[in-house]
C-alpha cells in the first residue's frame, strides 16, 4: 500500500490521498484449505502416481485468489473513492465522496492482532450502496482521511444529508391518510 499526495490523472484539482489493497490475511482459511488439498494430493500420489496432476487444482485455486486480491486496488482522492478490480476484465467503480452517508471501522480480534482493519461505507450511490475495504493497514488513518474528504466534498458541492426518522415518516403518512377519509 502506498500513501501519496500527487494529482490524479483525471483532474488537476483531484489529489490522491491513499491507495492500497486488502491484505492476503483475509484468505487465511482458504489458503489453509489449499494446503490441505495439496497434502491430500501428495498422499494420493503414493498410491497412484498419475494423481500428481491433481496438484494443479489447489495451486490454481491459491494463485487465483491471491491474484484477485492483489489486483483489487482502492484509491481515495479528495473527490472520490475508486475501486478497480479484475484479472482478465478490469472493472472500476467510482464513488463520489459527497454520496458517503456513514462509515465505520471494524477490527475483529485476528485482524487487530495483525494491525489491520475493515472500513465499511454506507452510501447513497445506487451502483455501490455498500463498500467494504477489507483488511487494510492504518485503518484509522484512512478513515480520518475519508471523513475529512467527505466533509470537504459536501461543502464544495453544497450537499447536505437529511436524516428522516421513521416516526416522522409515520406521522406524515398518518396525517395524509387522515385528510383523505
Widest sheet, order of strands:
1-2-3-4
Tell me the number of helical segments per DSSP (H or I, 4 or more residues long): 5
Order of helices and strands: EHHEEEEHEEHH
- Uncertain segments are 1-11
Look at the structure and give the mean pLDDT.
Answer: 87
Write a structural description.
The protein has 181 residues and is an alpha+beta fold. The chain has helices at residues 28-47, 56-70, 109-113, 139-157, 166-180, and strands at 16-20, 73-77, 80-85, 91-96, 100-106, 116-123, 130-137. Helix 1 (28-47) runs antiparallel to helix 2 (56-70).
Describe what is shown at a glance.
With 181 residues, this protein is an alpha+beta fold. The chain has five helices and seven strands; from the N terminus they run βααββββαββαα. Strand 3 and strand 4 (91-96) form a beta hairpin.
Outline the secondary-structure elements.
Elements: E1 16-20, H1 28-47, H2 56-70, E2 73-77, E3 80-85, E4 91-96, E5 100-106, H3 109-113, E6 116-123, E7 130-137, H4 139-157, H5 166-180
Antiparallel strand pairs: 1-2, 2-3, 3-4, 5-6, 6-7
Helix pairs in contact: 1-2
What are the defining features of this structure?
single chain, 181 residues, alpha+beta, four-stranded antiparallel beta sheet, three-stranded antiparallel beta sheet, 41% helix, disordered N terminus
